Amino acid sequence: MKICVLIKQVASEDSSLILNDDKVSFNTSSINFVSNEPDTYALEEALQIKEKFDAEVTVCTLGPESSRQVLKDALAKGADNGIYISDEGIDTSSPLNIAKVLTSALKDNNFDLILSGLQSNDTGFSQIGLLVAEYLNTSHASLVMGTELINDCKDIKVKLELENGWFQWSELTLPASLTIQSGINSPRYATLKGIMSVKNKEVKEFNKDNISVDYNSSYAVVEKFVPQKSKETETIDGSPDEIVEKIIDVMKNKLRLVQ
Amino acid sequence: MKFLVFIQSHESKIHNNSLESLSAAQKLASNHNAEVHAVTFDKTVAENISQYDLSSTIYINNQELNSYNPIYYLKCIEILNSSINPDLIIFGHTYETRDWVPRLSARFECPFISDCTNIDSTDQMTFIRPIYQAKLNEKIKLNGKGIISFQAGSFSKDNLKQGNCTIDEQSLDMSNLELSINPGERFKESADGVDLSTAEVIVSIGRGISKEENIPLAKELAEKLNAQIGASRPVVDAGWLDHSFQIGSSGQVVSPKLYLAVGISGAIQHLVGMKGSKNIMAINKDPNAPIFEISDYAVVGDIFEILPKLIEEL
Prior knowledge:
The structure holds two protein chains of two kinds. Chain A is an alpha/beta fold. Chain A has a single domain, classed as Rossmann fold. Chain A has six helices and 13 strands. A nine-stranded mixed beta sheet of chain A has the order 9-8-7-10-6-1-4-5-11, with helices on both faces. In chain A, α3 crosses α4. Chain A is globular. By secondary structure, chain B is α/β, with parallel strands linked by helices. In chain B, the strands form four sheets. In chain B, strands 7-11-6-1-4-5-12 form a seven-stranded parallel beta sheet, sandwiched between helices. Classes of the chains: A alpha/beta, B alpha/beta. At the A-B interface, α3, α4, β7, β9 and β12 of A face α4, β7, β9, β10 and β13 of B. β9 of chain A pairs antiparallel with β13 of chain B.
């Protein structure tokens, strides 16, 4: 069984996002890059499947030089090999084009399972896993909360999260692309032995010269901006005593919740 | 121009988000002088929808579409796309939409701008959507055919224009499809979950509570305020509270008189579930936490210093 995990490097939650003059790109010097958290659940799920079955786990990322780190982290946790696609000269402006590039690098590997987080914490489109499923003509499931390989690993049973607390089991024929919901498992930490093993693991390289893609150009990010507030907000700050006094005042006199 | 709006329903009940998107489509159509066609797989829903100001309601009468299976849904819209050739296909950004609509984007070779919250006022083919957990917005311009989904609450179904339109009933040939996806029955894990939709006051706990041992602190505050307890996703994922307490797109949608967010940073999935609250007070030590953007009262401070004192004073 061959499993591929798609991992993206994104800005950490506490990074300050400073736009350049083009209003589209960021000043990357103020950004701390990390593996996209939802993708770490996808990796953990792949590693758990590997522990139960005879599986090879490949991790794949597309991004700048810095994103090699997400591959190193995943290899240290137990992935077997990696695929690095440099984004230099590559059009990553839309999910459609990103999926085309990924497909071009993945298509000859015949993966049985492709796992990714349900969305990235930067652009948040939640599309890549599904787009790749369409391009590679696999089955798919999204918001996956549990997996169970069945029928001698020819099919997979997945637990899906629906809205308003509903769930559903669905049976998919492999190959399949699954987008993994957070909370499905507890992602592991790398061991020292794992970290030492990274240098012996193979990472295949792709770049604009060996990726052939027919880009879609009917889409352009025009501008990024800080949203205008729709509400007037009263800030309550000060020492803890002052804060508590002000909160009680609001609750008593404005909201009339307490006597 | 032609717009096609997909109306999602379950057991003849229309998803709210679909009606909101229909409202968005009407607004967009009035600026483009465009036709708006709605498509549904349910007869009762078709009759319902035909009371709005639309060019037509398309009712696809196929038993394969009675319950959700992405394979059939995709095929159906693929057939309609070739017969109607709409410039825009519009959806509510529901969980179901996330599960099948991206594939349409690849199949039709047209971009899917998902989770939009608005249409740009100066260029009507430019859409606005949140990025970086709603810390920023981006504007995306479409130069051709596209698929759009609108986030819950972005447009109001109260603005839907009434009218009268014909119902165009069709049956499609969907035989010979390879069923590589077979969804089973839907179920709930906690049958008698907590209903927070009628709560007057909710004390909602976020990741900032740090560990399970601190949950009683928030519970004590809730008791003093005669409030119900709610939580954001990380707290239920960690197992500190049952899934039924979760507020947000995968949990409950609430609108209490006071929503007191304790250590919640305000990921967009959470905001969707509580932004309709009459009053929102958030306590967070990060002055830039996105939850403050929609708060009436932004309390900047450490919950572990504030909560014990507040409980004592109440």
